[in-house]
Amino acid sequence: MGAGAPSLWDQGWYRYARALASPNFGPRPERVAIDLIVLHSISLPPGEYGTGEVQKLFLNELDWDAHPYFQGIRGMQVSAHFFITRDGRLWQFVSCDDRAWHAGPSSYRGRSNCNDDSIGIELEGLEGGLFEDLQYETLSSICAALMCHYPVQHIAGHQHIASGRKQDPGPGFDWPQLQDSLGLPAKCFPERD
Predict the structure, then answer these.
(1) Which in 133, 153, 155, 167 has the greatest CB count within 10 A?
(2) Domain boundaries, the chain
(3) pLDDT tens across 101-125, in order?
(4) Residue 122 designated active-site
(5) Topology of domain 22-186, per CATH?
(6) Residue 183 φ/ψ region, left for φ over 0, alpha for ψ in the -120 to 50 degree band, beta for the rest
């Protein structure tokens, strides 16, 4: 990077994401290596895109009475580090230096509590559904930027870290496309079925 060029990161905030600070986060354990990216899918209400409701959920501003589905998630306090909309826009809710509340009870690489050492990225979509090319482009860009700044060695889905409890992003997600775009070896990803 040339002299005077702006950094991509400022205290865990990515320069090219729209920042909306969520209150749903905490400190990471001391000396933890941030070596995992966890991919999720979400839409609120399910199957409806561009509503702004995901952002409201992560900010604790969702109107629980606005849709019948919201009654089933009433009171949830969750967050991800990033959210990628169907048109490829990137939002950030938690500094990557902090622990977002995205994984829940989880285990991967022989370690539990994946929130401790992971970065959570939500893709706007349905569990098992297909995702847009613009989402893959943004996802590849943010994963590459994360891997340059943090010691990330693994990328997995919520389904891989909370097997039996979660199924997102699901079979519609194109793992080979992401692997090819990042030029990473297969060992960085979950085993394919």
Answers:
(1) 155
(2) 22-186
(3) 999 999 999 999 999 999 999 999 9
(4) yes
(5) Lysozyme-like (3.40.80)
(6) left
